[in-house]
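Appendix C: a fully annotated inverse folding record. The material below is reproduced so that readers can follow the format used throughout the book. The structure is listed first as tokens, followed by the designed sequence.
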């Protein structure tokens, strides 16, 4: 039976720190507007034998990724236990759990894991959900994003199907920002998860040669994946990765910059006549991207769910890092037939209900336990004020797709 309701559960924490203008001693040069700081892995939340034994099964993980995976699965466990206490959900309520962009982003020179470490992170997350399927059967888990680098040959992205990856050829090293999502309701082992790649790197991604102005090393293309993916945004194969069906619910995913006016990935996919899939829930996993009214694609009565890990000096620390808004209607550009139920043009504007979906419950992580410390060296004082913990939004009814 399709899901009739959803509950948004956000794991809120800062995943990227930085310093905007006005400048102070130690800030970057004038031609670099932000200095984004590498985030240390922080504390391992617990040293329970069962958790350590689980993590040891994935030898590809280094100390940094092991700590981040360990904390993530313990937060998932904490969320599930707390949800039982809240109560009120049933098998027709889809739990949507998100973490911010850059949750998996190491503080090394490249700000990226190796391909082997990336595979280890994915395997550990998938395995944990598989082995706790009874607990997460009705959960859709967005694991933030994983920054990684790999070597691939030109043409690895198949121009027709978008599916042929050929690795191992010593051509170009590319950097990737990948969102893994896992649906606990798929009974097939390791089959309930998929990967969506962020297309274009921005300076906020922290890649050397983009943020510090330095020339990349010979043979290293900081945005090779971006250029290849950008060409494929209009292909059904690429768009299908950004709009997908979970338990009868159509969900769209934007990763930070993809939601911006220059790309609007889900909006473009929604408007593609070769891929007419209506979005009921529009998810934004971000590190510095607000909800844009001309990029939203959820139908009338649908919802936009955002989780943002940005924490820069001078930016107020408040609840708007995590939000869930209900779409009340659309207005179209002048000269376009009015269609209030869904965006009809690329520049259609979404309007929202007067109040966001309220937070029903929250769990604040205090220093120790699951609280992520230490802050990045030299980062802003707002880091310590940033909420770290879980926010449980009120469960809401999922709208039926429009009948055309």
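Designed amino acids, in order:
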């Amino acid at each position: 039976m399709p899901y009739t309701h959803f509950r948004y559960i956000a794991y809120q924490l800062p995943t990227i720190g930085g310093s905007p203008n006005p400048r102070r001693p130690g800030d970057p040069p004038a031609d670099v507007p932000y200095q984004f700081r590498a985030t240390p892995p922080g504390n391992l939340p617990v040293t329970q034998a069962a958790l350590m034994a689980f993590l040891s099964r994935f030898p590809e993980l280094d100390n940094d990724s092991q700590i981040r995976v360990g904390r993530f699965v313990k937060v998932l466990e904490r969320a599930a236990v707390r949800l039982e206490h809240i109560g009120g959900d049933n098998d027709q309520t889809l739990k949507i759990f998100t973490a911010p962009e850059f949750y998996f982003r190491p503080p090394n020179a490249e700000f990226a894991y190796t391909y082997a470490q990336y595979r280890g992170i994915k395997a550990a997350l998938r395995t944990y959900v598989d082995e706790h399927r009874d607990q997460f059967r009705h959960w859709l888990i967005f694991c933030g994003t994983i920054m990684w680098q790999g070597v691939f040959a030109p043409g690895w992205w198949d121009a027709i199907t978008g599916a042929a990856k050929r690795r191992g050829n010593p051509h170009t090293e590319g950097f990737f920002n990948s969102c893994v999502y896992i649906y606990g309701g798929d009974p097939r082992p390791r089959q309930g998860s998929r990967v969506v790649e962020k297309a274009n790197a921005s300076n906020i991604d922290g890649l050397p040669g983009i943020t510090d102005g330095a020339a990349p090393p010979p043979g290293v293309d900081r945005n090779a994946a971006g250029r290849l993916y950008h060409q494929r945004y209009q292909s059904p194969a690429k768009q299908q990765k950004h709009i997908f069906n979970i338990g009868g619910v159509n969900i769209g995913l934007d990763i930070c910059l993809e939601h911006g006016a220059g790309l609007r990935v889900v909006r473009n996919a929604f408007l593609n006549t070769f891929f007419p899939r209506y979005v009921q829930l529009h998810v934004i996993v971000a590190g510095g991207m607000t909800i844009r009214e001309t990029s939203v694609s959820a139908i009338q009565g649908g919802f936009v769910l955002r989780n943002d890990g940005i924490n820069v000096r001078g930016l107020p620390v408040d609840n708007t890092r995590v939000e869930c808004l209900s779409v009340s209607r659309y207005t179209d550009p002048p000269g376009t037939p009015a269609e209030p139920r869904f965006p009809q043009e690329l520049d259609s504007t979404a309007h929202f209900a007067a109040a966001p979906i309220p937070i029903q419950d929250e769990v604040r992580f205090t220093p120790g336990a699951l609280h992520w410390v230490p802050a990045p060296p030299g980062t802003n004082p707002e880091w310590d004020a940033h909420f770290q913990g879980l926010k449980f939004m009120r469960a809401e009814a999922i709208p039926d797709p429009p009948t055309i």
